[in-house]
């Protein structure tokens, strides 16, 4: 589909079922296939807080980023949302004029971003502390970036 940019208002209208054809947002005359994460997922919660919680009932719901990627990559008229690390090989869409890149997510300019946290029940020790230290290390953050995610700002 030739659409490479949407406004948040257009994206909201698509997911709420108010815009149902790509031609209404500058694309070809084709029904939009709406793809979403299932209720209760972190991605869905983020999308709900930034775009809309009112996702139309005939949307296709999936339980993983991988399943969304598979569906969107195989359906030319689909639109979906997933973690940036899964976007490789897919056409991404600018929102409000901002492309989803590591830099635009890191600096907060891309409008649909969520932070991920590693939590422990108590002050970490032993292997748990070693793992968390590795995650925060230069080597750990290099892996984060290689996987398409946004590394921790130092």
Widest beta sheet: strand line-up: 3-2-4
Task: Let me know the number of strands.
Answer: 5
Gap between N and C termini: 38 Å
Strand-and-helix sequence, N→C? Answer: EHEHEHEEHHH
Helix content range = 25-40%
Classify the beta-strand content into a percent band.
Answer: 5-15%
Low-confidence stretches: none
**Major sheet details:** 3 strands, parallel
**Secondary structure tally, helices:** 6
Approximate shape:
elongated
Oligomer: single chain
What is the CATH topology assignment of the largest domain?
A: D-Maltodextrin-Binding Protein, domain 2
Tally the structural domains: 2
Class inferred from helices and paired strands: alpha/beta
User: What is the average of the pLDDT values?
Assistant: 92
CATH homologous superfamily designation of the largest domain: Periplasmic binding protein-like II
Query: CATH top level of the largest domain?
Result: Alpha Beta
CA-based gyration radius: 17 Å
| CATH architecture label of the largest domain | 3-Layer(aba) Sandwich
């Amino acid at each position: 589909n030739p659409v490479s940019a949407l406004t948040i208002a257009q994206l909201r209208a698509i997911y709420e079922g108010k815009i149902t054809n790509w031609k209404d947002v500058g694309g070809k005359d084709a029904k939009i296939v709406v793809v979403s994460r299932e209720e209760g997922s972190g991605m869905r919660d983020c999308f709900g807080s930034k775009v809309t919680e009112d996702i139309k009932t005939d949307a296709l719901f999936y339980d993983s980023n991988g399943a969304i990627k598979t569906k969107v990559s195989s359906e030319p008229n689909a639109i979906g949302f997933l973690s940036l690390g899964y976007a490789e090989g897919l056409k991404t869409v600018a929102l409000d004029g901002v492309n989803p890149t590591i830099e635009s997510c890191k600096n907060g300019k891309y409008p649909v971003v969520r932070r991920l946290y590693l939590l422990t029940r108590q002050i970490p020790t032993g292997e748990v502390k070693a793992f968390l230290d590795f995650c925060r290390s230069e080597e750990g953050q290099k892996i984060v970036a290689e996987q398409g995610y946004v590394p921790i700002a130092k």
